[in-house]
Amino acid sequence: MKLTLKIWRQKNAxxxxxxxxxxxxxxxxxxxxxxxxxxxxxxxxxEGDDPVAFDNDCxxxxxxxxxxxxxxxxxxxxxxxxVCQLHMRSFDDGxxxxxxxxxxxxxxxxxxxxxxxxxxxxxxxxxGFVSTKTGAPQxxxxxxxxxxNADKAMDAAACIGCGACVAACKxxxxxxxxxxxxxxxxxxxxxxxxxxxxxxxxxxQMDMEGFGNCTNEGECEAECPKAIKMTxxxxxxxxxxxxxxxxxxx
Amino acid sequence: MTVLDSKxxxxxxxxxxxxxKFDLKLVNPANxxxxxxxxxxxxxxxxxxxxxxxxxxxxxxxxxxQDSPRxxxxxxxxxxxxxxxxxxxxxxxxxxxxxxxxxxxxxRSREANVYRLAQVSNNIIDQxxxxxxxxxxxxxxxxxxxxxxxxxxSRTFYARGQTGQQLLLGAYSALSRQVGxxxxxxxxxxxxxxxxxxxxxARGIVCRNLVSGDVESYTADAVVLATGGYGNVFYLSxxxxxxxxxxxxxxxxxxxxxxxxxFTQIHPTCIPVSGDHxxxxxxxxxxxxxxxRVWVPKKKGDIRPxxxxxxSERYYYLEEKYPSFGNLVPRDVASRNGKLVCDxxxxxxxxxxxxxxxxxxxNRLGEDVVRARYGNLFDMYHHITDENPYKMPMKIFPAIxxxxxxxxxxxxxxxxxxxxFVLGEANFSDHGANRLGASALMQGLADGYFVLPYTIGGYxxxxxxxxxxxxxxxxxxxxNESTEKTNKLLTINGKRTVDDIHRELGKLLWEECGMGRxxxxxxxxxxxxxxxxEEFWQNVKVPGEAGEFNQELEKAxxxxxxxxxxxxxxxxxxxxxxxxxxHFREESQTEEGEAxxxxxxYAYAAAWEFQxxxxxxxxxxxxLTFEHVKLTQRxxx
Lengths: 250, 637
Known about the structure:
The complex is a heterodimer. By secondary structure, chain A is of the alpha+beta class. Chain A has helices at residues 33-46, 118-125, 147-157, 164-168, 175-186, 195-208, 219-223, 231-249, and strands at 3-9, 18-24, 69-70, 73-74, 96-100, 109-111, 114-115. Chain A is elongated and about 60 Å long. By secondary structure, chain B is of the alpha/beta class. In chain B, α3 packs parallel to α12 (440-461), α10 (359-365) packs antiparallel against α11 (367-385) and α14 (498-512) packs antiparallel against α15 (519-539). Chain B has helices spanning 16-23, 29-32, 44-56, 94-104, 111-131, 163-180, 246-253, 317-321, 331-343, 359-365, 367-385, 440-461, 473-492, 498-512, 519-539, 551-575, 599-602, and strands at 36-40, 59-63, 81-82, 156-157, 184-187, 190-198, 201-209, 215-219, 222-225, 258-259, 264-270, 293-297, 314-315, 354-357, 394-403, 406-407, 420-422, 516-517, 584-585, 604-609, 618-623. Chain B is globular.
């Protein structure tokens, strides 16, 4: 396959970036998208150019590290996959492909296609946990959890924290990410004691980080590689409103 | 040669850990805040250790090279985590889990450590549930279990096919809480480059800030490495792209012994290599072998499509060689035989791959049942290869998956450097020569949640620690060495990329020091590795600068260490003239061609002491004695 790539190059956080065009021949349709970029980088290195920086690690779709905006879509055009699981056979011979980083004020570019997602960690630090210490809690089966709740909690917990939801949203909202964690813990008995505090703290931190609001358009759900549903955002609103009344009473 | 002291406490096996916990000196709660600990790595072992120690009151500095602690490679574990809860009432017990693990490790692990692992396995499940880990449940609300990896009891807890992810996110949430409260200082995008040993004790690390390129030093009263395994020495493995041996290797060069580096595990059901561009290998759960039949064409280089090869011209080599276990022989036997038939030229169309065929199962059970059992795996295979496994047999080949070897640690998880503790896959302790399925997650969390928080207190309470800060001359010296090494890498400006040389090393080790080895091949590898290393230092091309985000420079540093470490692997494999666990030493086999362990001469952990690059390492032995588990040879005929 032959490809024309237009890739966002930006030397560091302060520098101004631009799209640079590269030509690639001899791309095998069996390559993953990231392997195609590996091929480009090997070529650039031998030609004395600076290779393209992009985050990646597990290349199995679970670590959440890879984060490319391809042809105007977070993780590319295929449904429910991360970039590392995208294969070149889904592109056309001779196609022009534009590759950009996530674009959001709260996820600033570090270099080329690499962004800083520290904001996500800080949101979790604000309340995305159950305050239990390592020790000797009760026997695991002393806390029966209805299967349907455990399954729903698992659906939400499947979030890999990649940031595609933010990148896809015109408001750069992180609500799908935040609501996934809030839902997981709101659906489980372990999450009840801190339920209100959690919703308030996480939403507060989300706002502090500069993420936008939700206007119910659903790009996040459409682009999420792990099929996290917008119903979680509805649950986030409910949890937040509930908390604003009950938490103040306390 | 010294005999290593494992510091295993006396007394009956069942009481050792409880008695030891009582005997360990305690640090007064008010004094804990006076101690600081560096933890490198945020996988199951690192995150659980950092969180648990911070909860106790220690000041923790936690480092990872990823952009967030949640991305550590523990996240990719699929299958599950073992515990001896015996919820299904099928006869499991702590003793049975212990017994199975020692036997599964082919009698090359330490009995007391494994017993402790089985003991705390139950606490792990309780702990994870308390954190809100959404394990699979039955309709009554109780936890579900499944049988895994050939175990005869159902002791594996799981969260769909993402158990590692959910357990890691549980540990990450506990860690995040401590970061939020200011008890853990988190340093992301930092790669440890050196261990600082001051007055004989581990007191700090030097790392590279991967964003700015700055070389930074940090000090503490103890250092904990939870930096994972070294499978990427083979270039292609199921590990994440950035997994590496650098932290462990740097500690080894400062005096920490490296144990059993030749013990690596090869997983039989991975998707085969499709070309030179291949960057990593993808594992599919070995549960596939429950219904899939493994075969190759009988004729060498047969290029007919599989449906045109009649039954009589197929070689079902596992079923023929191992009639009682058939396709369900353990990982190592399945892997070795797969490579063997391919090396004989019988691989599919002459390639390095074999068929895993579900046609018989689909006929017997119907496609719907097969879909219910393996649907997600079939989809994954279809997605990656563009071939439909309901219509065409899967092509599979073994791949490096886990490394049992690691830094030598005593019962307290302390290495041969006082104050340096090593957890999880990075140490050598609990899996012997072969790890059982669903036991890696168990060990990582056992070490971090339930072992280290006790033993590190014993170290602090009994050790004199002088004040040290990052201006210490040892750290300044190491910073200079790191800077010089980086500058050297950037100025070679040769003709080959880091990946190119790494691939050459990996291929050599896969051929000569993989699942099958012999003296001749190992000796050849031992001669070739220093030459590849020399080629690297003469002819590698690393672009960019030191003071910037530079991923090629990161890779170059890691591969430079793999090039030294690979030689030690081969040295260790040469010393161990027995077949054992995950590997097959061709000179040591039974008349039937099966692996033959040699307990008389090799019932020891081989712990290597670094003497210098291009110098022969010194072997120290920890003799392994088995008081509870009877030494037997495995047989799957």
